[in-house]
Amino acid sequence: MIIDTTEVQDINSFSRLESLKEVYGIIGMFLPILTLVLGITIGVLVIVWLEREISAGIQQRIGPEYAGPLGILQALADGTKLIFKENLFPSRGDIRLFSIGPSIAVISILLSYSVIPFSYHFVLSDLNIGVFLWIAISSIAPIGLLMSGYGSNNKYSFLGGLRAAAQSISYEIPLTLCVLSISLLSNSSSTVDIVEAQSKYGFWGWNLWRQPIGFFVFLISSLAECERLPFDLPEAEEELVAGYQTEYSGIKFGLFYVASYLNLLVSSLFVTVLYLGGWNISIPYIFVPELFEINKVGRVFGTTIGIFITLAKTYLFLFISITTRWTLPRLRIDQLLNLGWKFLLPISLGNLLLTTSFQLISL
Amino acid sequence: MMSEFAPICIYLVISPLLSLILLGVPFPFASNSSTYPEKLSAYECGFDPSGDARSRFDIRFYLVSILFIIPDPEVTFFFPWAVPPNKIDSFGSWSMMAFLLILTIGSLYEWKRGASDRE
Predict the structure, then answer these.
(1) Over the stretch A125-161, which tens digit does the pLDDT of each residue have?
(2) Distances (CA, A) of A171 to A226, A274, A285, A337, B65
(3) Assembly ipTM
(4) pLDDT of the residue at A17
(5) Is A140 on the interface with B (CB under 8 A)?
(6) Which residues are listed as membrane-spanning (chain B) (predicted)?
(7) Residue A334 and residue B47: Cα distance in Å, rounded?
(8) Measured between CB atoms, does A252 come within 8 Å of chain B?
(9) Residues of B in contact with A348 (CB under 8 A)
(10) Which of A164, A131, A133 is closest to A256 using CA atoms?
């Protein structure tokens, strides 16, 4: 033998080390994703509880109070109940489309969380096409709704699915044009860069002041994309029973429920990131990154504060959309489409032109 | 470059898994004993479902999606134009304006012809 045994052992241990490093690398990739998914799930549970409590407060009821302190476990209890429900398939429907539909809606919305910066360098992946990825992925969701509407073989579901698709594609263009104006202002499509660009003058540096028209158009369009109440035509109870979810029961209904709240959360997060300065503390003359960059503990503290600030701004918008639900009446489908195509689209296009001309002048 | 997209690729695998697990969880628990044909028929307010649900529907749903096809690539083309404005000189900006002008004329024509009217 030319190679002696110690050398072989060395090679073996070296290759084992390499594989260990790979394993750690994979775990290091899984950990942020699992944290993100866990965080989103808890966020959704909190939103469901908030929605029920705020609705109860507006209607002068008590709301959930038995499951856990202040009823905060109500959403968890409801979810557990849905798991034990009978798994029904409509007899004349398409079982495959019927089952895949809700999952597609959930998957596409879950994926759009990957580009949201929750705090300073606390983002799953800082892509340079961040907002574009969000816009591309979020437009997959209506396919899932259309599939479930078609697969149910029910007149209400079919109409609901069609309405959902028409509504989301109509409001996607104003939404995208508003995002485009923001990335024109920040010279970047990366969500982290967009937040960084707003970090200078406290709350005076927010894009809200530079893009007031874009902000309102974005808010209206994101409400429509989430199918929240002034625009909840796809699931209008009085006309379409429950729209595309009429035939659903058990956990599949739960998936639609989760998808709608995930969508609401991601829209509010994007309002925060694009218009309200994200994780910045937003009081003039206090610069968080410099204060907390001193040592490791300070950095962790700064990140935690950033997450809290992001969530505070986000929940403000959630509160606004929940109170909107009990304030405004539902639109008609023609009013809804006219609002999208004849009002929001020209206005957002004008906003984009205005932003472009300012940029051209300043060049 | 790849390291930026690696978490998204893993996430792309994890999120379908998550929803598949959620879809699969009820199978061991959920009972399927009390199923009778009336329960599985389509819900039409308690009556027997009349006809097939996949029948004709309003042409205007088609029109909306056709109208959507043009502005959507337009917006997609806008992104590369918008992001590095310092690298694009005024010629680049104005040529995009010409593109936008053509599309605006098109949508104005469509508006005047009443394609987006829903009486």
Answers:
(1) 788 888 888 888 888 888 888 888 888 888 888 888 8
(2) 10, 18, 38, 9, 12
(3) 0.81
(4) 59
(5) no
(6) 6-29, 61-79, 91-109
(7) 29
(8) yes
(9) none
(10) A164
